[in-house]
Amino acid sequence: MLAMNYRGPQRVRIDQKPLPQILHPEDAIIRVTRSCICGSDLHLYNGNVPDTRVGETFGHEFIGVVEEVGYAIQKLKVGDNVIVPFNIACGRCAFCKQGLYGNCHESNPQATAAGGIFGYSHTTGGYCGGQAEYVRVPYADVGPTVIPEGMDLDDAVLLTDVVPTGYQAAEMGGIQKGDTVVVFGAGPIGIMAAKCAWLFGAGRVIIIDQIEYRLEFARNYAQCEAYNFRSLEDPVVFIKKTTDSLGADVCIDAVGAEAAGNAMQTITGRKLLLQAGSATALHWAINSVKKGGIVSIVGVYGPTDNLVPIGNVVNKGITIRANQASVKRLLPKMIEHVQEGRINPKALITHRIPLEEVADAYRIFSDKLDNCIKTVLIPPSARI
Amino acid sequence: MENTQGFENKRGGDHSHIKGWGIDADPKNDPTYPMKQRTNDEHNGYTWERPPQQTVNVEVLHSIERPNITAVFGSTVPTKGLSGKIRRYAFKHSESSYAHWLPLLLADRVDMVEGLIEDINKGSFPNILAEKGIKAEWKHNKTGLLKRWAIGAVVAYAAFVYVTRRRS
Ligand SMILES: NC(=O)c1ccc[n+]([C@@H]2O[C@H](COP(=O)([O-])OP(=O)(O)OC[C@H]3O[C@@H](n4cnc5c(N)ncnc54)[C@H](O)[C@@H]3O)[C@@H](O)[C@H]2O)c1
Ligand SMILES: [Zn+2]
Ligand SMILES: [Zn+2]
């Protein structure tokens, strides 16, 4: 089958690989119909996630058709069209049972700090990802959810990560009616977080980025204010000034380890890898939130350490909430929001690219070329 | 939001000797809600009925912070070569230690060279420019690409002049 093949930092290609096999009684094999490239893939692409092995196939956002199931599978049937959450979850450990499907204890031998994720290095379990024609899906009766009748595949594929992650970013913000919410990052995740902040009753939503076309997109799509930090002398002072010098009620970090905007963070975090990525956006979030406010982090960082103003967290009495999105927990509600027209995921998709052109697709998404917001890869079998 | 399970002492042990034990427990003060629908299951320890174990027929390195290999795991690219040796060393240290993560990053770079050798042994030198997505860059960011190449050329020329001058 065709599958993306990682060869080293910023080097990926399409290759022939053996078809996946059922390796566990609760496995299924899925034929992929759509897969995405995510901001999280950029941490892998740039070689910043430890134990990313040459030969791996990335891709944690995919949907497809069930081709084969293991003997212990009871709910899923061959031929089902399914949304596959990016987290691999057993559904019966103490964490899954409490809704923490992004923190399963039975899906990642390599690290206890992270649950299993498809196509996301050996640090999250060493699974093959969905930027391929076929994928092995473990615990197939737990995660995969049948795509509702009539739902567009382009909407469905964004329910694997972007929509629930943006939603959870807002949810973790504990937004109360009338709150001012500042979202750092106008990528797909930040834009979705801004959109969802309104569903919780935000009074004002502000998004910060450095890319003009993304800010423009966010203004229209999420009906929010959008500012370019390159034209602000100091984003923290700007946010203070626009909130009566008090700070925002809720700040959301939807940037993570590839953040720009502070030379010292960029050099130590992204160039020298002396910290687990650059923590510029998180730094700004902590310093722009009001006293007693909430900082919600969905931006992804590496497993070592980051330079953040923790002293200010203490002095301001900030609550920090963070997690990998619990996709399965949120899916029913997200499906309803899409069906009721409150969220329109597929509007984020700017690029539909054949799987075979995966190297160019990564370049476009990584360098934010051609006004790219979200890139979807389409395998040959789904292009007919 | 309310922790409907209350804060029972499921871990066992009698705390009656502690005056006021649990007197201020407040089930509403649970900042993990709604991310976590608390059942206090983890108070019972690692005792849940585990899913069946996937057969382990490749080397799976596991964190020393857990007693076992998880019930399922990915086996896409098994450890091999020098990078594999470095990874094995890394897994002797906990996730809390630089001695775990830094060797893993080093192993990734070694792996890249091993991958290149593997490609060449298979009889094909990889098209690195294509792997870096040069086609897309040429199409959508020609000036940026040309600028990078120009800077590269100037740096290379300066280095060449410097080296040849020093020699003569
Ligand atoms: N927690 C989860 O479950 C989860 C799931 C998916 C993605 N993520 C993470 O969310 C983050 C965003 O993902 P994405 O797909 O939107 O990525 P993306 O790369 O498309 O977007 C990131 C945006 O942040 C902007 N940016 C850079 N530095 C900034 C700064 N200092 N302040 C404000 N904006 C800045 C960039 O210009 C870019 O537009 C990534 O770190 C990704 O790993 C987390
Ligand atoms: Zn993602
Ligand atoms: Zn679990």
Short description:
The complex is a heterodimer of chains A (384) and B (168). With 384 residues, chain A is an alpha/beta fold.
Give an overview of the whole structure.
- Chain B: Residues 8-17 have a biased composition (Basic and acidic residues).
- Chain B: The chain crosses the membrane at residues 145-163.
- Chain B: Residues 1-30 are annotated as: Disordered.
- Chain B: Keywords: Membrane, Transmembrane, Transmembrane helix.
- Chain A: InterPro entries: ADH-like_C, ADH-like_N, ADH_Zn_CS, GroES-like_sf, NAD(P)-bd_dom_sf.
- Chain A: Its cofactor is Zn(2+).
- The complex is a heterodimer of chains A (384) and B (168).
- Chain A is α/β, with parallel strands linked by helices.
- Chain A folds into two domains: 2-161 and 326-382, Quinone Oxidoreductase, Chain A, domain 1, CATH 3.90.180; 162-322, NAD(P)-binding Rossmann-like Domain (Rossmann fold, 3-Layer(aba) Sandwich), CATH 3.40.50.
- Chain A contains eleven helices and 17 strands.
- Chain A has helices spanning 39-45, 153-157, 162-172, 188-199, 212-221, 235-241, 263-271, 280-288, 310-316, 327-339, 358-367, and strands at residues 2-8, 11-16, 28-37, 62-69, 81-84, 87-88, 116-117, 134-137, 145-146, 180-184, 204-209, 225-228, 248-253, 289-297, 319-322, 349-354, 374-378.
- In chain A, strands 3, 4, 5, 8, 9, 16 and 17 form a seven-stranded mixed beta sheet that branches. A six-stranded parallel beta sheet of chain A has the order 12-11-10-13-14-15, sandwiched between helices. In chain A, strands 1-2 form a two-stranded antiparallel ribbon.
- Chain A starts with a strand and ends in a 6-residue tail after the last strand.
- The model of chain A has no long low-confidence stretch (mean pLDDT 97).
- Chain B has 168 residues and is mainly α.
- Chain B has a domain at 129-168.
- Chain B has five helices and no strands.
- The longest helix of chain B has 26 residues, at 142-167.
- Chain B is elongated.
- The N and C termini of chain B lie far apart (78 Å).
- Chains A and B meet through strand 2, helix 3 and helix 11 of A and helix 1, helix 2, helix 3 and helix 4 of B.
- Nicotinamide-adenine-dinucleotide (NAD) is lined by residues 38-40, 42, 161, 165, 184-190, 208-211, 214, 229, 254-256, 259-261, 280-281, 298-300, 324-325 of chain A.
